[in-house]
Amino acid sequence: MAHKPGSSVTIYDIAEAAGVSPSTVSRAFSRPDRVSFNTAEKIRTIAEELGYRTKLETRNSVRTTKDVIGFVAADLSNPFFVEVLRGASHAGWVQDVWIHASDVQESQEKSRAAVDKLMGHVDGLLLASARLSNSEIQKIARTVPTVVINRPVNGVPSVLVDSYDGSIRLAAHLADQGARTVTYLSWPEESWMDSVRWRGLREATGSAAGDESPLFTRHIPLSDERLNAVAQMSVSKITLGAPTAQGGRRAFIEWKKHPTDAVVCFNDMVAVGFLHQAAREGVRIPDDVLVAGFDNNDAAQLVSPSLTSVAGPLRAVGRVAAANLIALVQGIKKPMAKPRVLPTRLIVRESTAVKKTRP
């Protein structure tokens, strides 16, 4: 295979020239003890011929005998990812594996750059960023052992929080509290988790209204009275500028133009911003509007009124994802055939404590 001088050489080029898989090339660079001597030497020779020498030297200068896992986090200022990272770090500590975290700050460009820099320096990758496409993640997984967090990708192991079930439970609770109109504050970017939460809210109402699908009643046994209450609910959506407290404050201004009985926020950070803006403008929570979020971070308990939230076992997500990745790296088990889904709980607090009455 011919390459122009100075052109970018990838492990895919080396794999094609050597007649091996990209994952074998990756192991030859990062863990040569797991590749036969002849194969490793062949790969290194071809890599040098193709101009890959500098990359090899750089990698060899930073590698240690300890396994290293890269953790690509969408935003480490978001408590969700901090909790997941803590769980992953615990699993790594138990297995004597280093976890190297990279904060890509909700940037697609930084997500790609982080993966590119980590490849060859780590034995596996935990991907907790929504900015990479499914095809990109599948390509990465063909090169290095990979587990995706909170998002299913065909052919790639993943660990998820069951936000769909959480949305349904939340819809039933809001109906119990007398809500008939609900606004969902949605993340603007392509996010699988956002779509699941929105779908759960919509399908809860659809299923309760007589849809033959048993999705709603399968999750929560309801009396006829509760089914009728949920059937009367309508849901609408406001798109956030950002899934942050500032985004929640701005969304409040939009919501106030067409107020509803309840507001469900993409995450607790958005809900906190909504609560703060409501207090500034004299809107009483929960008397005037019921408010709830997702993730159950520390702020949910500290704000006033305290925030009702759908809680996911975030540290467990990190532990399970990291433990499965370590097992893949060490050759102990094969990749999970299906996503591992962990359950949620609805934590009811003051922000939805008042039951609305109807004339």
Automatic annotation (TrEMBL):
InterPro entries: HTH_LacI (IPR000843), LacI/GalR-like_sensor (IPR046335), Lambda_DNA-bd_dom_sf (IPR010982), Peripla_BP_I (IPR028082). Keywords: DNA-binding, Repressor, Transcription, Transcription regulation. Gene3D superfamilies: 3.40.50.2300, lambda repressor-like DNA-binding domains. It comes from Corynebacterium pilosum. The keyword Transcription regulation applies. The lineage of its organism: Bacteria, Bacillati, Actinomycetota, Actinomycetes, Mycobacteriales. Residues 9-63 form the HTH lacI-type domain. One of its GO terms (molecular function) is transcription cis-regulatory region binding. It comes from the Bacteria. SUPFAM superfamilies: lambda repressor-like DNA-binding domains, Periplasmic binding protein-like I. This is Transcriptional regulator.
